[in-house]
Write a structure and sequence with these properties.
Elements (H helix, E strand, L loop, with lengths): L4 H9 L2 E3 L9 E3 L2 H10 L7 E5 L4 E11 L3 E11 L7 E7 L6 H10 L2 E8 L10 H22 L6 E2 L3 E2 H6 L7 E4 L6 E2 L10 E6 L7 H9 L3 E4 L7 H15 L5
This protein binds S-adenosyl-L-homocysteine (SAH).
The site of S-adenosyl-L-homocysteine (SAH) has 17 residues, from helix 7.
Length: 259
């Protein structure tokens, strides 16, 4: 059954809901209240309806609504499980320079749809942002996580990307492991075209994108010293919030993930 056309179609089309990791017992699961409310009160789903559930850790199940009660209680009977549902073969990290008034939400939304596994907000030399106080930082992180979860459901993948706290550029670059292809995007004559970057079915790739005002020459130098390749997308300069998703799309396409 697992690879029949019906199964594939269901996994592509059926309404998709998030469940808390480890909430499955004996092939049954109760949807979290917000998801249950959405199923009953917004989507008007009823008993017997076929659905897909994901746990945010790369697991998906095909199942059906076994029972509903009130406005938000939905019990699902699970039929079969799929590991890494909707996930790319590569683990992509997108590290993006923060700017003031910068729409990191938009980067998280679009990057998630394109298959990013990890987002790293970078504080760079030209970022001009102040580190938030811990409460504000938590509020923002919660918001980004909400945006990411909505994007995970809408694009039908099963892994919730990790979103780290803001990290200083030097620190991030200093921790890059030399085995992982790392690309720093920088519009300069010294940068190479993406086509000329060797990417031989890597299991991980790191992408580093600057803030609105770009990287300083010494930041690019530091990254190169750590083994990063500096890459140019040509003479037209993209705004940072466009550059991040465009770069993810180009790299995912290059790795055969968009076909
Ligand atoms: N004035 C800045 C441009 C910043 S654009 C500068 O000259 O560096 C914001 C970020 O998007 C850049 O730091 C880079 O990472 C990426 N980017 C935008 N357009 C690019 C291009 N044509 N080539 C390479 N990277 C680009």
């Amino acid at each position: 059954m697992a690879d029949s056309q019906d199964f594939q179609d269901l996994m592509m089309d059926a309404p998709i809901f998030y469940i808390e990791p480890d909430s499955v017992t004996d092939d049954r699961v109760i949807l979290p209240d917000t998801e249950g409310h959405h199923a009953i009160s917004v989507m008007r789903l009823a008993r017997g309806e076929l659905i897909v559930v994901i746990d945010g850790l790369g697991n998906a199940w095909r199942g059906e609504i076994a029972a509903t009660s009130g406005r938000k209680k939905v019990e699902i009977a699970l039929h079969s499980q799929v590991r890494n549902f909707g996930e790319p073969n590569v683990r992509l990290t997108l590290a993006c320079g923060l700017s003031t008034g910068y729409k990191f939400d938009s980067i998280v939304q679009k990057g998630t749809e394109l298959g990013v596994s990890r987002f790293v907000p970078l504080i760079t030399e030209k970022s001009k942002v102040k580190i938030d106080d811990p409460r504000r930082a938590r509020t923002k992180l919660t918001r980004y996580e909400k945006v990411a979860l909505a994007a995970v459901k809408q694009c039908r993948r099963s892994f919730r990307p990790e979103i780290t706290r803001p990290v200083a550029f030097e620190r991030y670059v200093g921790e890059i492991d030399s085995e992982t292809p790392t690309l720093i995007f920088h519009p300069s004559r010294d940068s190479v075209a993406l086509d000329n970057v060797p990417l031989d079915s890597p299991s991980r790739v790191n992408l580093i994108v600057g803030p609105e005002s770009g990287f300083s020459p010494s930041e690019v130098e530091t990254a190169r010293d750590r083994g990063a390749i500096s890459v140019s997308l040509g003479t037209r300069i993209l705004r940072a919030e466009n550059a991040g998703p465009v770069i993810c799309a180009l790299v995912m396409d290059r790795l055969g993930e968009l076909r």
